[in-house]
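[scheduler] slot 2 assigned
[scheduler] job type: sequence-to-structure, two independent chains
[scheduler] chain ordering preserved from manifest
[runner] begin chain α
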Amino acid sequence: MATIKYILQSKSENAPIYLRLSLGKDNSLKRRIGLYINPKEWSTSTGLPKQTNSKNKNLITDLRNLKEFILKEINNSSSKGIEITGDWLVFKIDVYFERISESKQSEYISDVIKSLKDASKYKKNGKGGIGLSKSRINSYNTLNNFIEALEKKEKKKLKIKDVNIKFANDFLKFLIEDGKYSESYAVKKVSDLKTVCYSAENDGIRVNQQFKRIQIPSMNNDFIIYLTLSEQEKIQKADIVNESLINARKWLLLGCNIGQRGGDLLNITVDNFVNRGGLEVIELKQEKTGTNITIPVLEKTKEIINQGLPYKISIQKLNTYIKKVCLIAEINQPTEGLLFDKKIMRKKRGVYLKWELISSHVCRRSFASNNYGILPTALLMQITGHKTEKMFLKYIGKNSLDYAQQIADFYTLQALKEKKEPKLTVVKSASN
């Protein structure tokens, strides 16, 4: 008959508690259970903590329950012909304390995130296929860093079953107050955590069902930074002599006319320009979404690339150069937005000169904002990659009646253009 006894083997103030399992003559196993106690609080006669305080009484309850659990599992395993080994004992101890699940998966949040990333090549993605994107994996890496920071603050490992409504609220508060992150960014991280919980549940790990009721606020897009058509005209006419800035200006204006993210924009080559049934279009596959996009080559696009495509640069250089381009072009309108502050190493809300807030993302939003009400919304959504009109309208900060000024601006500029349509000539390197 199997018997269990708890023992200490150390005289240190924080001695580990061992479980000794006797299965018969000359057949015993001894393993740490992951709990500790001061030997002065331990009774050698009972093999349990002394009942001197509530903490010890709770520990006694845990040890007795663990003993009953292990003995029950011995009977279950023996009836199935499973050998009782040291590894078996460690596994059952961890299962009891919910350090891992019966499927041998860790129940700690950081370990669940790691497992999710390890299996990223085979996880279902939002496009209905398999394989998580690089940006999604990076999001999980960042989430894990935040979880580890919270664990450090609370001085304990956090389990996936801990994630409930209160946990989500506390995590949100931690990111905003301790981390000094924006509310919209913090909300995204809570959303990522909720996704991790769904993944854990699908993998058979015990979760707190309350996580499904965690509300993800719909954040307003407070700062709609885009370049109007008149501002783009100023940029086009700006007196720029530096070759790198001339090249960056081409990328900026091209991006504002094809509505793609910076990474997709900079990957465009002459091979992306094709003729479909007499119509000049740009065809590409968006890196973030994996969506195949077809973009009509509009008149302004033809003007920009008439003398050749700009040469490729890094996204970091593009972001640096286009700020300088907009500075020279006097895009100086005081504009509210978020700007990175080196002192606090975070983006800081404030009113800045508009050129300071310009980055590659302005391209996609400028295209969407300026063409809303001009091109069919369905076509704009197909080009920008938005799935619903509601998402698209929120992205540009408009409603269905809010495009009169864009139309007026468009036709004013159209009247100033030459009537002769420029000939489309694409070459591999920029000549200006």
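[runner] end chain α
[runner] begin chain β
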Amino acid sequence: MHTMFLTARGERLLNAPFQERPPSGPLGQRSRVLDLGCGTGIWLLAMAERYKNTELLGIDLAGMGPESLLPNVELRFPCDYESPWSLGERSWDIIHLQMGLGSVANWSMLYHKVLKHLRPGVGWFEQVEIDLTPRCDDGTLGDGALKTWYEHLVGATSAIGRSIAYDPQTGQKLRDTGFTDIKEEVYMLPLNGWPADRKDHRVGLWYHIALSDGHENTGGYGLEAMSLAPLSRIYQWPVDHVRRLCADALQQVSDSRIHAYNCLHVWTARAPYLNEAR
């Protein structure tokens, strides 16, 4: 998934503006980057390699990060970013959230916490989300298991107040929170390598790998990994039923004659200065 994101975004780790401050003292006085729900830490580690004078912190519920870290990286597990924070208000240059859909119950509360912890005037929030709605511009998708899978997944996650559906009101919610300089960039994510364009073809190949089941012990974001818990626990479907639906959906995902895609949304928003008019 990390490589797919990089390829789709032209090898950018960040869309938000970020200029590393020169080290002028202890680690705590350096630029600071906070990664919410850091997962394996792959994005955070890539940032640490590129910005060696920046202090980086990743938090997540699950301890999936590597045992060996660069000296400017810290990981904290278990840590729920919807719980109260003690991370230093007005001290972060970048707060990053990737793939938060399906795990957040109160977006307004989360956005307010993010805003309070960014450096006023110069701190930036970046949110990276995939709209999993199956899209197709030439009619090759039609109806079938992929749309059925998506509708059931949205229904199940919405039933517990943590919808995985992309919110088209994201920009307005950021404005209502008090952010400024809000910008959205949207990238096409082909479900396989069907595009003729070289870059889009590569994005599709990487995305197809991420959506597929993968191999044992590799983990990932496959359809089955996203679906088993919500559909079996909330809808109480037998596990075999969920797996059959995912397998049928993957047949469409893997068919290069079907020109389907998802959309990747990257939102950036700046914390205003304390005296800046909204």
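[runner] end chain β
[qc] chain β: Residues 145-159 form the longest helix (15 residues).
[scheduler] slot 2 released
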